[in-house]
Write a structure and sequence with these properties.
- 2 copies of one chain form a homodimer.
- By secondary structure, chain A is α+β, with helices and mostly antiparallel strands.
- Chain A folds into 2 domains: 124 residues, Sandwich (Jelly Rolls), CATH 2.60.120.10; 81 residues, Winged helix-like DNA-binding domain superfamily/Winged helix DNA-binding domain (Arc Repressor Mutant, subunit A), CATH 1.10.10.10.
- Helix content of chain A is 42%, strand content 25%.
- The first copy, chain A, contains 8 helices and 12 strands.
- In chain A, strands 1-2-9-4-7 form a 5-stranded antiparallel beta sheet.
- In chain A, a hairpin with a 2-residue loop joins strand 11 and strand 12.
- In chain A, helix 5 crosses helix 6 and helix 6 packs across helix 7.
- Chain A is elongated, with a radius of gyration of 19 Å.
- At the A-B interface, helix 4 of A face helix 4 of B.
- Chain A binds a DNA duplex through helix 7.
Chain lengths: 230, 230
Amino acid sequence: MAKKLESQNCEECHCKKVVFTALTDAELDLIHLDRFQVTYNAGEIIFKQGSPSTYLLCLTSGLAKVYIEGLSKNLILSIIKPVEYIIAPGLYSDNRHHFSVSALVDSTGCLIAVNSFKKVMRQNLELAEEFMQRLSNQLIDNFDHTVGLTQKQMPGRIADALLYFSEKIYESNSFEMVLTRQELADFSGMSTESAIRILKDFKDEGIIEVRKNSMAILNLERLKKIQETG
Amino acid sequence: MAKKLESQNCEECHCKKVVFTALTDAELDLIHLDRFQVTYNAGEIIFKQGSPSTYLLCLTSGLAKVYIEGLSKNLILSIIKPVEYIIAPGLYSDNRHHFSVSALVDSTGCLIAVNSFKKVMRQNLELAEEFMQRLSNQLIDNFDHTVGLTQKQMPGRIADALLYFSEKIYESNSFEMVLTRQELADFSGMSTESAIRILKDFKDEGIIEVRKNSMAILNLERLKKIQETG
DNA sequence: CGCGAGCTTGACGTTGTTCAACTAGAGTGG
DNA sequence: CCACTCTAGTTGAACAACGTCAAGCTCGCG
C-alpha cells in the first residue's frame, strides 16, 4: 500500500508550479502541514469510489487511471500523468469520491488535505479560479468523451483512444500502451474482444503498428479521418 | 427572438434566493446593472454551442434543454427548470459555449453578464463556493448519465429518462412529456424508432400509460428494476 | 516444466439501426 | 369547408453492429 516518504518542503517542490504558483509562503506552509508523500505500486488503488474524500492527490511520477465502477464493467474517464492534480468533484457537494483512481504503473504522489486546501482557497482568489478552471475543463473533456462514446462506432472510438494517448499522454506517435486490452475497452466503451478486433483491423490496414503493448501510428491522416467519420 | 422586458430590481427578485443569497445589496446592484430579462418562444435557441459566452442565464419560467450538437445527432445532457442557472463551463477556460441551450416551451429568464458575475465572485467567497458546487454537481450528474448511456441497454436507458422526468423535473408520477420522441431518443442515446418501441413495450406490459405526450408511471417498482438491471 | 493471466480468433446470437411505408393531426390557402 | 402539406409518430422487415461464448494461444514467472 501507500508508503509515507520523508516530506520535503513544498516551497522547493517543482509541483507547486502547476497549481500553487499564486500562493504565498505562508499559504504553502499551511498546505505543507498536512501533507504526505506516497508511493503506489502498479495496480494499487489511490482513491476508491464511494469513500470519503479527505485528500486530493498531486501525481508527481507515474500514471494513473480515473474510472467509474459501473454495473458490470468499468468506464475509464481519463488518464492522469505528472504533474497533475486529481481532485474529487464531490469536494463541494457530498465529500465523497465519485470515481476510483488507481496507479497504472509504479507512481508517486503527494496527498494534500482537503481542509487545508479549502482553507487556502478561501484566502487566495487565484487558486480558486485555477481550481474552477480545472473543474470546467474536466466537464468539457467529459462532454467530448461522452459524445464520442454514444455517437461513434467502434473504429471511431478506438481512434479516439489512440489519439488521446498519442497527443495528450505521450505526445508522440509511438508509445508503450499502459492499458491492457480490457482497459482500452473500458476506455472506449466496448468489449475486450471488440477492441482487439479493431486494433487488428487498423494493423492490417497499415494504420498502426502493434507489437505487444508498443504501438505506433503509421498513418495519422487516416486515423484522424476514422476519428471524425465515426 | 429574445425580447427585452422592463427590468425589475434584483433585490426583490425571488430568483436571488437560489444563488445570490449571500450577496450584499451593493453586489446585487453590480449584477443588476448589466442584466436583461428576456422571453423565449418554444424552440428558440438561448445559447449556441461554439459562440462566445458573455452571459449566463437564470431561467425564471418554462423549461429548457441543454444539448451537445454531435456528429449527426444531438445528445441532450439535461433539462433545466426554474429557478435554475445555466452557466457555461467555458467561463473559466475558453469563454465559449460547449453546449447549446434552447427553450422547450415558452420561457422567461434573466441574462446576467459574465463580467459582472465574475467580478462579484472575486469579492464574495460564498458565491464562488456556490458556483463550484454547481460545477461539481454537473460533473457528477454527467458521470452518471454517461455510465447509463454506455453500460445499459435501451430499456434501462428509457427507464432512466422516465424516472429523471418523474423525479427530478416534474416530481410526480404522471406528467406531460415536453420532449418529442426524437428528443427522448437524443436524451437516451438511441434512434427515434427504438425509443418508440421501448415506450410501446413498457405500455404493453402495463408499466406506464401513454396517451400522446401525457405519461404516467403505473408500476414504479418494475420500472426501477429495469433501470437497475440495465 | 507447468500454471495462469492476458491476448487472440471464429462462430453465433442478440441488440439496435436503417429504410420504407403508412397514419394521425395541425395548420394553410383556395 | 375541403384538399394539401408538413411534421411527429408508428410499424415491420432487412440489415449491420456489437457482445458473448468457447477454444486455443503466448509468455512471463514460480
